[in-house]
Description:
Elements: H1 9-33, H2 37-40, E1 45-51, E2 56-59, H3 65-68, H4 71-81, E3 92-95, E4 107-116, E5 119-129, E6 155-159, E7 162-163, H5 165-174, H6 178-205, H7 212-230, E8 236-247, E9 253-263, E10 266-270, H8 286-301, E11 315-318, H9 337-340, H10 342-354, E12 370-376, E13 382-388, H11 416-422, E14 425-432, E15 448-454, E16 460-465, E17 486-489, E18 499-503, E19 508-512, H12 527-536, H13 541-548, E20 551-552, E21 558-560, E22 563-564
Parallel strand pairs: 10-11
Antiparallel strand pairs: 1-2, 1-5, 3-4, 3-6, 4-5, 6-7, 8-9, 9-10, 12-13, 12-16, 14-15, 15-19, 16-18, 17-19, 20-21, 21-22
Amino acid sequence: MREETPLDPIRLQVIWSRLASVADEIATTLERTAFSLIVRDNQDYACALYDADGTMLAQSNQCTPGQAGSTPTVIREMLATYPAETLEDGDILICNDPWVGAGHAPDVFVATPIFYLGRLAGFACTCAHHADMGGRLGATDARDVYEEGVIIPVSKLWRAGVRNDELYRLLARNVRMSEKVLGDISAQIAANRVGAKGIVGLMQDFDLDQLETLAQQITDATEAMFRKALSRLPVGEAHSEVFHEITNENGERLKISVKLTVQEGEVHLDFTGTSPQVAMPINAVFNITRAYAVFPFIATLCPDLPMNAGAFRPVKLFVPEGTVLNPTFPAPGMYRSLLSYFTVEALMGAIYKVAPDLAMAPSGTYPLWTEKFAGVGPDGREFLSHYNAQGGQGAFRDRDGNSAVVFPGNIATTSVELFELEAPFRVISRELRPDTGGAGKFRGGLGQETVMQCLNDTPVQVAFSGGRLVEPAMGRETALSGTQGVIQIRDDAPFTRSGRGVMEKGDICRFAQPGGGGFGNPAERDCALIARDLQLGYVTAEAATQYYGVCVADDGSVYRDGSAV
C-alpha cells in the first residue's frame, strides 16, 4: 500500500462534498425502506461514515444530535470487540446497549464494515429508533434498565455474508411487532449497503488506498472552523443551573448544574453539582450528555459546520459519574430526553451570561413529547404506534421563537394521516395554541394541541411522555413565560408527569405542548408584529391588550399611545 499524500484544498472540498452526499444517500435509503412511522416519517435516526480506525468522516444532513453523537462510541466498542483483523467482508454488526450507544434500548445501531482492495476501509453506520425493544410498554415508572427492553451487546448480525439466525430469532421473540422491528433492521442493512457502495466508488474515483489521511484532514479542518467560531465567545466563566419539575424520591427537584469556562477557541463544561442518578427512567448516559452539550455551540455559532469527529474536540466535558447525566449501570433511561434536553437550557443560561446576544430563551420544545399506543386492532392484529408533536422554541434577543418544532431533537412531527392509517384512532384536531408563546419584545414560539379519539373495540394501553406540565418555559429580560403543557384523558385530572393509562372506545385524549419563553420587555414589541400575530391568530386581542399594553380596534388595527398601525 502506497503512502497517501495530503490533498490540496480544492480536491479535499470535492471529496468532502462527495462524502456528505454518500451519507445523505444512506439516510434517503433508510427512510424509503423503513417499516415504522418513527423512522420513515419522524426521521428519528442518524447515519454516519467512518474510516477503519473508527474516526467519523461525515454524517447525513438529517440526524438527531443524540444518536449521531453516540455513533463514535459504538464504532469504538465494535472495533474493541471485533478488531479490524477479525472482520470479514459480509459481516454486519449490531448493538443497542444504552451505555455504549444512545442511552436507551430502542436506539439500535447497525454497522457494516467496508472492504476495499482486500482490507478494511471503514464503516457505514446507521442508528434508528425502533418501534419496540421489548420490556414493559412505555415503562414510565421503570426502576432499572432491565425493565426497558432487550439489550443487545456488540454482536455479529451477519457473519461473512451468512445471517445469524439465532440472533434474529432471539430478537423476534423478545419484541412486539417483530415484523416492524426486523423490517427496520433490514432497512438499516440496505442503507449501509448503499453507503458502502458509495465509499468504494469514491475511493476508486479518487484513487485512494485508505481513508485515514482523508479523515485526518477533514476532521482537522472542521476542528479549526469550530475553534474559530468559539473564539467569538468572550474568554471567561459562567455558572448556570436548571431545576427540573421532576423530583427525586425525597421530593427534591432534579438539578442540572454547569460551569462554562471559555478559553480561546475552546470551552470546558463542568457538570459538578448535578443531581445524583434516580430510580426513574430519565437518566441520560454520558454519550447523550456529550452530544447535547456540543450541539448548542454548533447551533448557535456555526450551524453549517461540516459534522465529523473534529466537531467534538473543542468542547471538553467533566460529568461526575453517578449523576443523572452520567449514571452507572443499570439505571433506567428509556425517557432520558425528559431530562437530557434540559442540558441545552442550562448551557443557554451560561451562554447568556457571557454572550447574551447569542442565547435563546428557555423552550417549550423540551422535553420531547412521545405518546405510545398499543393494543389489538379490529382485524385481530397487534398494533403499536407512536405519536410525536412538540412545543415552541424560546425567543432570541433579535427574533421570535419558532412554533411547533422538535428542538434540539431534530425529528419531525407525526403525520396525522399516517398515524390514523396505523392506529385505530381519529385525530379530531391539531392546531397551534394561541397566546402560548411568552410575550416579549420578541415572542416565544407557540405550542400546539392535538385532540384524538379512540376507535378501537378493545382497550388500548397508552404511555404518555411529556413535560413542562407544572412549570413553563421562562422568559428573559422581563419577558413572560410560555404556557405550560397539558396531558389529559377523558375529563380526568391532567397528568402532572409522564405516565400510563388505558383508553376505551370513544375516549378522547388531549396533548397540548408548551410555548417558548419570550425575550425582552413586552411593551417594546413592534406594533406591526403584534398586528401580524393578531391576523394570523397567534395572539388574541385580549392577550395583546393584557400583555403588550395595546388597544385593538374592531377592524384589527393596533394602537399604542394613541398611534395606530
